Amino acid sequence: MDTPEKYQIATPISKYEDSPVFNYINSLSPIKPVKSIPTDQTFSSLSFASPSSVFTSPHINPQRESRFLRRQQFTDPSKPEFSRRDNDENTSEGVLDAVHQLDYLDPGSSDTGITIDPSNKDPKSDAGLPQSLKYDCTSPEDNRIPHNDIETETMPEVAIRPASHVHFVQGVSKERRQSFEIETELRGICQIGESKEAAGCDWGKLISDDTDQLIFDSSISKEHSEVQDHKTVDPGTYSFIATVLQLPHDEIDDLQKSQSMGSVDSYEQCETEETVTKSRDVGEIKETDQTPAVPSSTLLDKLVVSDSRAEVDDKKGKKCMQSSCKLGSQQQLSIRRRCLLYEMTGAHKKKLIYNSDSGSSASSQSDGKVSSDEKQFMPFKPGNIHPSSMLAGIGLHLNALATTAEDGNKVVKHEPLASERKPISMSRSIPSLNSMSLGQTPLNKSLTPDLLERDLVRFDSEVQATEDASQTSEFGVSEEFNHGSPKRKRRRSEQAAENEACKRCNCKKSKCLKLYCECFAAGLYCVEPCSCQDCFNKPVHEDTVLQTRKQIESRNPLAFAPKVIRSSDYVPEFGDESNKTPASARHKRGCNCKKSSCLKKYCECFQGGVGCSISCRCEGCKNTFGRKDGTEEAELDEEETEETCDKNSLDTSSQYDVVLRGEEEHSDLVPPVTPSSEISRPLVQLPFTLGGGKPPQSSLLSVGSSSQMYTSQKFGPSGFICRLPKFEKHLEMIPEDETPEILQGTLAGGVKSTSPNSKRVSPPHHKIGSTRAWRSGRKLILRSIPSFPSLNPCQESSDRSPGKTQ
DNA sequence: GAGTTTGAAACT
DNA sequence: CAGTTTCAAACTC
């Protein structure tokens, strides 16, 4: 083992050295290069920029870097790929990966006795790297010197990154696919390095590098002042770094704690502690820098952190496991992961799941228990529902999201309402956790789809808010950002409840066994209030209902999925609930309105409180929530979709700038979005048809497909691009989740802003790593992406369906 | 509450 | 995949 590891280690190092970055560093003076900052041009270059160019012109990169870095950071969670992509870039990720790897190794190693490694690492890392990191964060000035050195190194890396980013975006899906392998390799390398004590050093370097990069980025993005960089460094970066650095600490702490604690409890504690530590870091960061951008960045960071955390948690969890009892079965580990993830996203989700599964009772659980319960439960249900999957599910079913997002509070409320109606439980059939999570969740869940559609937006926003809150809380930052107004949530929930309560069908010929029937479509049994005739949608005819459902699903797996899809994760940044507005959601299929101008409930988009998207084939769209052209809702009123398109085309250049801005601005941006603000919106339109067709698996769609769907949706709307223009102007921020996707989509799709009217530009349904998509937080979208597809070619649109690119 | 309009769902 | 029919909600009166 050791020998090979050493070799590997060497390789990584060599990579770094070999990497253009290194050369770069060597050639360049370490001093901050530069931050020439952001010239929008860079963006253009970015879009076009080939990696090589990047290498050649570090300066340019730096500019990008700031933004990109942030983005990357945001994306980081998902990014393992990035790291892989560019080994050089890996610094931050690499660290994380290393940590993960360590964790991974740990379990196995633990048996072998390797377990020691982690401890070793931790101490080292703590002593060496972490401190340095903290140092940096706290006192940038002091650190400067080191930073400078580091920066020099990072610079090159950063420069590289931009290119990688572009590629990444485009080829995310592919990369993700491959990312596994790459990650494994990287991890292996990192692990090796770590395993060696050199790892400690490496770690330190890595961390320092990361920090530097981050700092650098921030500095670049914000200002020329290099020194300030330290101060200004994005909280996010800090947090990110901190998280990275913390990992070791956390691990150590966790180990200690876990040892003291024991099994599950230790887990929780570990997590909490981690969160605390993170929060601390965050706090430090905040203290150091609280630039306006901070909030957003912090949020992003949080997201990222959360991701990292998830990883860390996993690690910790594993460690805890080992230390405690070695509960150690992989299952347990998986459970923990899940738990962690859930926690990250928010307990509410967990609750929802519970609720759905167990029924109302579960949902009612007091918060106090919830945590424990959740964890316990989590394993069961979700088992299927992996966090990612959950998200996916959520994405699929807004309903589910709504319910989940809302958490116990809402859930409780809703359930009663729903309770009246019995959801059609596919459970028996089962398999279905997946299905459940995906489309069918609604059934189990008391929540009616109606709510979903109608209230989805609300819920979504709420959910996001809750998620944010949860995340923030974890970080400790929540206070600042959390604005989540429980009140609003409650209102929404109540409203939703009302809606549900009111829901009833009036079917006469369909026997309530077709999607015409709202009850059936919602996965609910008809109830008294329904005035349907010859209704078969009753528990008595359960078999019939289930069969029918299956048939329908076989035709269209997403038939029972919520029609309105929310961007899911996009977590509104600080309390901007405004972001949560319905706008964030999109109708999965899009409407086909011709006479209603999408201003009446005939329009499903309008009904769902979401704006029309590219996927819509509506004519004369005036959807107040957002036009299909991409105009954001608020703006929508004006219509002129075409204009938007034109703008888009024009914007391309400007977009770049905007995009860049997004990073910082978005923080500020916090779009006050009215409900209409689509910023938050995911743009997503579900391509729905995964491949134009319907995925074969009906109920099974579930997780996998669902997740995919979800992601794809996000990506899907190539039209997205069209919106960009406005976005740029109005919203610069885009949820990370979306952004990457969007970017991908845009890149891949090449945007076809050209035909706003074009009725549906079929979004590429790529299913990029679904899991990641929801994950974290938001990333700023690089709006910079020019509408021109031309860029795409570089980017490997190949990943994405070529169709999009057009 | 009846009739009309509308667009999704279902069918061919 | 496109066109048509069926259906039930949304809307109007």
TrEMBL record:
GO terms under cellular component: nucleus
Record has Acetylation as a keyword: no
Chain spans, region Disordered: 48-142, 260-292, 354-379, 413-445, 467-493, 748-771, 786-806
Regions of compositional bias (Basic residues) in chain numbering: 762-771
Biased composition (Low complexity): 48-57, 356-369
Occurrences of domain CRC (ranges): 501-626
Polar residues bias locations: 426-445, 787-796
Family the entry assigns: Belongs to the lin-54 family.
Keywords of the record: Nucleus
One of the record's GO molecular function terms: DNA-binding transcription factor activity
Alphabetical list of Pfam families matching this protein: TCR
Protein's cellular compartments: Nucleus
Protein name: CRC domain-containing protein
Stretches with biased composition (Basic and acidic residues): 78-88, 275-289, 413-423, 797-806
